[in-house]
Amino acid sequence: MLFANIQQTYSNDTSKSTVKDIFIDFELKKNQENRKIGLQKSYLTGLKRFLSWITVSNNQEIIELVNTIEPSSLVTSYSIQNEKFTQGRYSALITVNFDLNKIEKLLDINKIDYYAGVGPKTLIIPLMSFNDQLVLWDDPNPWFQTWVERPFDANLTEFIIPEGDIEDLLILSSEDVRKLNFNKIRNLALKYGVKKVLVPFLKIEEKEGKYNISLRCFNGLSKEELNIKIIKKSDQKRLNLELFDIINTFTNSFDDHWVEDNIKKIKSQTIIELTIGYESFKEWINIKNIIKNSENVKEFKILNLTSTKSDAKIKIINEDKFLSELENNNLNIKKDKFIWNIRRVF
């Protein structure tokens, strides 16, 4: 029997986290509920995958943790696509939603650091050097094409791939990317409505049909090199598969980078009590927005508000950077350990 492109869904309402497109394939067994077996396999695979995203635990630690529970107890919903019963095999693409509150409780009990927040939409500019020849918008560009063809389930970050149309070509050249030209990369970011840009730079050296492949990655706007390096060897026959494997390794490494960075920020947070003075409501709104929109402020809670002052509590990540930010906005700060007074400088 063949059921192509069908979708079945079970769900109930709760706080959820989704793992998409889990491919399940196994030999059909007589007198057994093969769909149920497929779902159980997808729950296990999906949970392992999600835990690898939101923690920096290694595979063995994740396996040991998952073995202590029944994965189905954390599932809130699922959907099945492209389900097939054919040629003695069962196959399907299954999307699984997990109860995030239960997962967080499991990790807290086992004292495992995690961060389940979703990263910002991120533009990927896949630059390739093939035998020292830069390739970006050119056709063929197997590195760019692999990014386009990769089936994304997004992990913790939603990656966006440029269209590579005439406008993109006019905005940015391969040499601009190699030099990490801020203005031109920012213009492409503005076109796609993103604030974060990554340049995964793939270098391929070919000699007599053998390929040495290395990947480095840069923040396209800050020019910072990420601590992600991948080295591979391949031949012509396996090259496309190796490129897919490199992208999967990269996205998993980027998840770890994102999670680790946010765990460090959470651990380094400082709670500050603020008293903010102002002479008008407009001035208060302005000061509030400066604090609220700061990347160095993790939480901002107003405790009391009058016509001349406000009491608030904030959590900050980097005190020095936040102080510099306030001073650059003409705000005067008087500090007494964790109690600060802020007022506009005229």
How are the elements arranged and paired?
Elements lengths: L6 E4 L5 E12 L6 H21 L4 H8 L8 E12 L2 E11 H10 L12 E3 L2 E4 L2 E3 L6 H8 L9 E2 L5 H6 L2 H5 L3 H11 L3 E12 L2 E10 L5 E11 L3 H29 L2 E8 L3 H12 L4 E9 L3 E8 L2 H10 L2 E6 L2 E6 L2
Parallel strand pairs: 5-8, 5-9, 6-9, 12-16
Antiparallel strand pairs: 1-3, 2-4, 3-4, 6-7, 9-10, 10-11, 12-14, 13-14, 15-16
Helix count, per DSSP? 10
Detail the poorly predicted runs: 1-14
Helix content: 25-40%
Note the gap between the termini. Answer: 78 Å
The ordered string of helix (H) and strand (E) elements is EEHHEEHEEEHEHHHEEEHEHEEHEE
Evaluate the radius of gyration: 25 Å
**Strand composition percent:** 25-35%
How many β-strands, per DSSP?
A: 16
Q: What is the mean pLDDT?
A: 88
Determine the structural class based on helices, strands and strand pairing: alpha+beta
| Largest pleated sheet | 7 strands, mixed
Q: Describe the global form.
A: globular
Q: Can you give a write-up of this model?
A:
The chain has helices at 34-54, 59-66, 100-109, 142-149, 166-171, 174-178, 182-192, 239-267, 281-292, 319-328; strands at 7-10, 16-27, 75-86, 89-99, 122-124, 127-130, 133-135, 159-160, 196-207, 210-219, 225-235, 270-277, 297-305, 309-316, 331-336, 339-344. The protein is α+β, with helices and mostly antiparallel strands and 346 residues long. Strands 5, 6, 7, 8, 9, 10 and 11 form a seven-stranded mixed sheet that branches. A five-stranded mixed sheet has the order 13-14-12-16-15, with helices on one face. The longest helix has 29 residues, at 239-267. The model is unreliable at 1-14 (pLDDT under 50).
